[in-house]
Amino acid sequence: MIKTAQEEGSPYYVGAGKIMQAMILAHATDMLGNIPYSEAYQGGANFTPKYDKQEDIYKVVNQLCDEGAVEMAKPASANFRPFYSTNPSESGDILYKGDPAKWERLAYSLKARQAQHLIKKASYDPNAVLALCAKGFKTSADDAQIQFQVAAAPLAGTTNIFGPTRNNFGTSAFSTNIVKYLNGTTFAGVVDPRFGVIVPNTSTGASPGAGTPTGTNLTPGSTTVTDVYGGWYARDLGYYEAITYHEPEVHRGRGRLPGQGQRQGIGFAA
């Protein structure tokens, strides 16, 4: 997408592509550590690209965000292709419906998240994180939420891949272990506030999850029991939260960050 947009002259698509690539790389390195990048994207020319250091991937993430923000600051008239369209069906920027300013704020919010991951490093600078937060999301209206949609021709497969309509998990169930961690069994009397959200609170009994009673949270159109479809993340038409305003705001609103006498917020694990 970035290559095509550069060739035709659509800077908003270039910017969105770079910011999305930055987000994907950030997720990948945070989960896996060192990952291929500098020798990647070569296809059959190189099936064994070298692994780049995580610190170098973080630099790439920051560079892509900066470059993406620059593209998003350009005028709409500079774009060959409309950034968002609803005719004949919704296309283009389905995340922010053609608002480049929100993409800019997304880039800075992502940079803030990655900078906050370095809390235990000597280079960590809480003031720099706050400065990035100030250029990031302003309200919940800026949340980067991927919204699932009812399938309508020519679109298909637009409901949640984890949802009951696509029925990819009709024979699955949560493990007993995770349910017991959440419902106060493993840690006696300590019920995780996410119980009933991640997994349904009907996951009960001696062996909740795998042993959820027959007839509970049935897969549509079948008698296969699964509690997976009772969780928040399995909503057909829900949304996936990539980054939200509340993530950095936990600290920005109080004027200090972890390392300055305040507890860490969700999403800022280091």
From TrEMBL:
The keyword Lipoprotein applies. Pfam families: SusD-like_2. Keywords: Lipoprotein. The keyword Lipoprotein applies. InterPro entries: SusD-like_2, TPR-like_helical_dom_sf. This is SusD/RagB family nutrient-binding outer membrane lipoprotein. It comes from Hymenobacter humi.
